[in-house]
Amino acid sequence: MKNTMSNTVTALIEIVEREAWLDLAVAAPADYVKSSKVSYTRLGAIVGIADLGVPITEFNRIFGLGIEKAVNEEELDQAISWMNEHATPTYALQVSPNALPETKLTEWIIARGFKNVGNGLAKFYRCSRLVEDHAIPTTLDVRLVEPHNAEEFGRVAQAGFGLPPTVIPYLSAIVGRPNWKAYIAYDGDIPVAAGAMYMDNNWAWLGIDATLPDYRGRGAQSALIKQRLLSGIKAGVIGFTAETGQPPEGQESTNKSYNNYHRAGFTKAYVRQNYKLEG
């Protein structure tokens, strides 16, 4: 998909997400780092994160290729070398449409044995305009997570994503951390859904959106999105971003996560592709 956003807005979208994931890795508890082999690196504008204990793309990928400046082949090789040493073999190099140098970057990546896999990630953008009431009301109660309830946040996110229980301390570590706000949606006193927001330089990334299977379709994520928008605007955020898997062409209307962000006033800015090693 051709990027209809300016290079500047694309860069801001990519940067705030990059910094959120880097900070999540930095915050990982020492015991989790040791047991799951969490590692991270910053190579100029490029950031790599790795987690051998959770062998999925979200926890093993490269951010920022060609975003703040054009990448050269030496820098690309350095990033790939680091990932080969630290990450699970299923790691991804993520490339936005405006990554520089245009055309050459993807050619270099493919020449090194990578191929474009899947439909990519739909990256969403929203400015700080008025937040409207959602079309799907909910009886669930959204609350800011305090440090004494951090594990509750991690447990809901882990269960909602279907990740191993060992990841709970990792996801819990953002609660109470500077730049982060974490929320839980409750059914009475039962925590049923989670969502987080990372804010930096008046931009915010919304992520870690997870709902327990029995509570899906009850408006939890819509309520969590609304609360984060209101909180972010109050804190001075001028631009919000989030992402979800890009559905197959023509099937966007059937994807709940995709629709949740559209209904909340987000626009799909572009699709970011995943490049993985063949075989």
From TrEMBL:
Every N-acetyltransferase domain range: 140-279
GO terms, molecular function: acyltransferase activity, transferring groups other than amino-acyl groups
PROSITE patterns assigned: GNAT
Protein name: N-acetyltransferase domain-containing protein
Organism of origin: Paenibacillus silvestris
